[in-house]
Amino acid sequence: MKLEVVRPGFAATVQDLGRPGHAALGVGRSGAADRTSLRLANRLVGNEPGAAALEVTLGGLVLRASGLTTVAVTGAGCPVTAGGRAAGPNAPITLRAGEELALGTASTGLRCYVAVRGGIDVPPVLGSRATDTLGKLGPPPLAGGMLLPVGSPGGFPVVDLAPRAALPDAPVLRVTPGPRRDWFAAPDRLLSTVYTVSPDSDRVGIRLTGPPLERLRHDELPSEACVPGSLQVPPSGRPILFHADSPTTGGYPVIAVVEEDDLDLAAQLRPGQTVRFRPAS
User: Fold this and answer.
1) Residues 48, 117 within the same domain
2) DSSP state of 42
3) Which of 134, 149, 164 is the last residue before a domain boundary?
4) Are 178 and 233 in contact (CB under 8 A)?
5) How many CB atoms lie within 10 A of CB 110?
6) Using one digit for the tens of pLDDT, what is the confidence trace for 48-99?
7) pLDDT digits (tens, 9 = 90+) for 112-123
8) How many other C-beta atoms lie within 10 A of the C-beta of residue 281?
9) What pLDDT is recorded for position 163?
């Protein structure tokens, strides 16, 4: 069983739950930016939660099945057709041999997830099938004509339908202060500012525009460990939210760290959308 990529859409990659535990080697976690949506897509087709699936930015993906299979689409809201028939998100979809699954342009959210029963069976690298766009590990981004091997079904139960709440228009992300809060003249301005997501954002980091945060110190900071969720502030004073493919170290002060549970919501932020921060407790 294979899936043929008829049209890859934009920035489409293979993702699973990533390769944690290799930061000492300079290898980031990577994996799905919206891990909840990946897990749900896999549940809908009877895969283990971390099976490899496809992550697509803003939709536009078209796949052709070589045989009878089950797929599911979760994440950003986009129109879906299967064999020319309208299909819904967050529910199993049957594809017959030769039929195409097509994703339209997402109207809400940013990233869609497409799981297939059996999972995308590309060779693992350091224990993961995820594409790391920064470290250049794992399979290459999807391209037209690519054939994606599908693994054998694992016998996990299939969920028939899993409705999800609508994504908020103006998300509020929870943060824990520090570790370099003392480098800023008024660090609490982070919590009172409404930021706008820049188009210059990707899986490595989400750039935010808004009033700059003034620094008290302007000396160089030695490179230190960073985790996904770190809000790093470069000399411009405008934060960058490190995300799925972020580096393991950074040279600018981190004013706060977004809670792990809120990174899935951050993954669905669209360019031009506003976002705010609040204390985690």
Assistant:
1) yes
2) H
3) 149
4) no
5) 25
6) 999 999 999 999 999 999 999 999 999 999 999 999 999 989 999 999 999 9
7) 999 999 999 999
8) 6
9) 77
What range does the domain containing 26 cover? 2-149
- Both 138 and 206 in a single domain? no
User: How far, in Å, CA of 227 to CA of 263, rounded?
Assistant: 11
CA 95 to chain CA centroid, Å, is: 25
**Per-residue CA distances from 136 to 125, 140, 228, 245, 247 (Å):** 11, 8, 17, 10, 12
Task: Report the C-alpha gap between 213 and 221 in whole angstroms.
Answer: 17
* Cα 102 versus chain centre, distance: 20
Q: In terms of domains, do 205 and 246 share one?
A: yes
The CA-based angle 111-115-119, given to 5 degrees, is 135
C-alpha 86/C-alpha 280 separation (Å) is 41
Q: How many domains does the chain have?
A: 2
Q: Are 103 and 59 in contact (CB under 8 A)?
A: yes
132 and 37, same structural domain? yes
Distance CA 117, CA 34 (A): 19
Per the domain annotation, does 166 fall within a domain?
Answer: no
Question: Residue 61's closest CA among 26, 35, 100, 109?
Answer: 100
How would you class 55 by CB atoms within 10 Å of its CB: exposed for 0-12, middle for 13-18, buried for 19 or more? buried
- Tell me the sheet residues that pair with 53: 15
Instruction: Enter the tokens of residue 150.
Output: 């599908």
Domain match, 236 and 144 both:
no
Can you read off the two tokens belonging to residue 98? 């030769």
Q: Are 201 and 246 in contact (CB under 8 A)?
A: no
- Residue 240, helix vs strand vs coil: strand
- What sign results for the dihedral spanned by CA atoms 78, 105, 34, 136? positive
SS3 38: helix
Q: Indicate whether 135 and 193 sit together in one domain.
A: no
One domain, residues 16 and 142:
yes
CB–CB of 3/147 below 8 Å? yes
